[in-house]
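Dear colleague,

Thank you for sharing your sequence with our group. We've completed the structure prediction you requested, and as agreed, I am returning the results in plain text so they can be pasted directly into your records. Please verify that the sequence below matches your submission; if there's any discrepancy, let me know and we will rerun it promptly.
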Amino acid sequence: MKILVPIKRVPDPATTIKVLPDGSGIDTANIKWVINPFDEIAIEEALRIKEKQTGEVVLITIGQSTWQEQLRTGLAMGADRAILVKNESPLDSLAIARLLAKVASDEKPDLILLGKQAIDDDSNQVGQMLAEMLGWPQATFASKVEFDSNKVKVTREADGGLETVSFALPALVTTDLRLNEPRYASLPGIMKARKKELKEIPADSLGVDLAPKLKIKNLAAPSKRQAGKKVGSVAELVQVLHSEAKVI
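Please find the predicted structure tokens below.
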């Protein structure tokens, strides 16, 4: 089985994010960059599938040359090869989905696994857009992935509980937190990653419309939370909720 895993480079969740004074973006100075945590889960699931069924795990990301670092991390985890679609300027979800669809049409994977969303913009769009462009069945928010012959059965987390869907390959699945626990890259894996193939493709060579359809007008940091207030009794609490908070 050939599995394509798109990944995104995002700030480390432990990093303190600062917005630029003009609100045009975030200050990237001194930020540690990592693989989007949901995409790490997708890599882990792809590796587990490969270990059970044999096959190939191919990573892909879209960004600048420095994004090779995250691809190398995925290769150190156990992926077989990687593709970097080079593009210097930021892209919206639609442009990213179009680029992934073009590469997927050339690579012809049996399964595409990617995180349900990126933790930086939380758009939760690329997987759905990509499946529609390819005309493939999809399952989002997967908490369990199983195979039966040439079909995949996915247990997905829905608002009302769990839902199980089944469909034939090729297909696309987006991963949720409870699917697995990603492995760490081992020292031998890190050494092997240096020799694995990492192919670079200029984004403008793929003949895809990259014109943004979404424009971010302004970014702002959330306002600081005000200190809480202690009350001496239930009666005082009710009075404060009524007169000050005006919620009752």
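Summary note from our side: The radius of gyration is 21 Å.

Kind regards,
the structure core
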